[in-house]
Design goal:
This protein has about 230 residues and is α/β, with parallel strands linked by helices. The protein has a single domain, classed as Spore Coat Polysaccharide Biosynthesis Protein SpsA, Chain A (Alpha-Beta Complex). Helix content is about 35%, strand content about 25%. The strands form two sheets. Strands 1, 4, 5, 6, 7, 8, 9, 10 and 11 form a nine-stranded mixed sheet that branches. The chain has a two-stranded antiparallel ribbon with strand order 2-3. The protein is globular and about 45 Å long. The two termini are about 25 Å apart.
Length: about 230
C-alpha cells in the first residue's frame, strides 16, 4: 500500500497562539505528529510514504531526511495554495496504484486505522473515506450516505439526515488522480471540492466510520490530542 501525507501548511494558527514548533514536529508523548503517522503507516504495510512539506520548514525536512534512513519516504518540498494542490504535487509518486492519504495532524486510534486499511486493501473498486460522528472542527465537511454506506453527498452544511463528517483520511483508486488533474486544469481548489467532483464523475465512494478522529489546529488542541491518545 502506498501512503501520502500533506504537511505543506504554514501552521499559522498555532504560531499565533505561541507554538513556535512547525506543526509536523509538534510532539505528542515525545514523538512528532509526522513521525507518528510514518511509523503507523509502516506498521500497516507501507511500500512508500510520500510527503509534501512547506518550503519554509527546513526543520521538518531535516527530520524526514533522518527518518528516510529507516522508512521508504519520498519528500516533496513545495508551498501550495490548498491541500488539493498539495495532493497534485505528490501525484507523480502515486500514479497507477491505490493509495491512502492523510493530513499531517490527523489523529486516530491505530486499531481502527488497521481495520480501515484492511477494508480498503480488499476494495475491488472505488474509494473508502474515513468518517466520524464526532464533530470538533471549525468548518467540517458533512457527508451523507445511503443504507450501504455509499457516499451520496459532500456538503458544507448538514441535512436533516446527516450523521457523519469527513475524517481527513482518504483511500483512493488510481483513477482519482485523473479527476484531480481536471480540477487543477479548471482552476478549482480545496480538497472538499475535489471530493465533490469524485462523486459528480460517478466514482463509487464508501464511508468507513471511526469512533473519533481529531486534528491539531490550535494550541489547546494539543492537550485534547494527548488525552485522546491516552484512550488508545
Amino acid at each position: 500500500m502506498d501512503f501520502a501525507i500533506i504537511a505543506a501548511g504554514e501552521g499559522s494558527r498555532l504560531a499565533k497562539e505561541g507554538i513556535a514548533t512547525p506543526k509536523p514536529l509538534v510532539k505528542l508523548n515525545g514523538t512528532p505528529v509526522i513521525e507518528r503517522l510514518v511509523r503507523v503507516f509502516a506498521r500497516h504495510g507501507a511500500s512508500s510514504i510520500n510527503i509534501i512539506i512547506n518550503e519554509q520548514q527546513p526543520e521538518t525536512h531535516q527530520h524526514l531526511r533522518t527518518l528516510q534512513q529507516e522508512f521508504p519516504i519520498n519528500i516533496v518540498v513545495k508551498s501550495t495554495p490548498s491541500s488539493m494542490h498539495s495532493l497534485h504535487a505528490l501525484s507523480h509518486l502515486l500514479r497507477g496504484k491505490k493509495f491512502c492519504l492523510t493530513t499531517v495532524d490527523t489523529l486516530f486510534h491505530e486499531r481502527e486505522f488497521g481495520e480501515y486499511i484492511k477494508a480498503f486493501s480488499e476494495c475491488s473498486e472505488g474509494g473508502l473515506m474515513a468518517v466520524t460522528d464526532f464533530i470538533d472542527d471549525e468548518k467540517p465537511l458533512y457527508i451523507d450516505t445511503d443504507s450501504e454506506m455509499h457516499i451520496t453527498r459532500f456538503s458544507d452544511t448538514p441535512s436533516v439526515s446527516t450523521k457523519y463528517i469527513s475524517g481527513g483520511i482518504y483511500g483512493l483508486p488510481p483513477e482519482a488522480l485523473d479527476i484531480l488533474d481536471k480540477c487543477i486544469e479548471e482552476g478549482n481548489s480545496r480538497m472538499r471540492n475535489f471530493q465533490r467532483r469524485l462523486t459528480e464523475e460517478g466514482m463509487m465512494l464508501k464511508a468507513w466510520p471511526f469512533s473519533k478522529i481529531i486534528d491539531i489546529d490550535h494550541a489547546d488542541d494539543i492537550a485534547k490530542a494527548l488525552e485522546f491518545l491516552s484512550e488508545e
